[in-house]
Amino acid sequence: MPHALVLVNFSVAPASESEFNQFYHHEFLPKLEEASPEIANIRRFEEFALGGSARWYHKQFLTIYQLTDGTTAEQADAMFGNPEVKDVVLRFREWTEKVLSNFSRMIFLPGWCHARTNGQPHFTGPMFFWQLEMKPELDAEFQQWYEQDYLPLQVAEIPTWVGCRRYTSVGTPQSRHLTVFETSDETTLSRSLQDLRAVHRIEQNLEWQKRVEPAVTWQDASTFRPIFRWPD
User: Fold this and answer.
1) Which of 76, 91, 109, 175 is spaced 20 to 30 Å from 214 by Cα?
2) How confident is the model at residue 57, as a pLDDT?
3) What is the pTM of this model?
4) Given phi > 0 = left and psi -120 to 50 = alpha, else beta, which region is 182?
5) Single residue among 64, 86, 108 that ends a domain in this structure
């Protein structure tokens, strides 16, 4: 079963990206992991396959803290207030004020997981992220259809997905559902995205649209590739 996650998103001003990464990769993330037994591993990704210079300028960077078994949402949130990491957290906040934007931090608990996996307990390759927020009265019905009918068929028809996992946010005003589709490399990710619109999937895609339009209040789709992993 997948572990709970802390997801941190932000954008970095391109002119400061190299200097920020030096601090983030070599000081902040190692120090936080060292002081936090709640963290099993850390993975960092950047958004790619962007269209247009404006989108490139605001591309997302994603940090995934995969948590150890038994870690609660309260413990996960408290990691960043640990006195042992006070100095690097203060420096990170300085960076946030200067060059970071669109910052968010959310905790996700694991839910549905397809039997096909990448053979690892953590994320290793390029991914397709699909996030949804639903009308509360339609949420349960949609999730049941999505997990029992739609996703198993989609994974069957797109053999280049090497894993599919689902998560739901906690501690947020509205539940956010996250589906992570994993691939082995960027070429197979591109192929997988093309196959989502394959001719033989028209019926499934029409059914998807029929169910999404009345139920979904917000959605976002992004592709990411790995740029950092710690400690291994």
Assistant:
1) 109
2) 66
3) 0.93
4) beta
5) 108
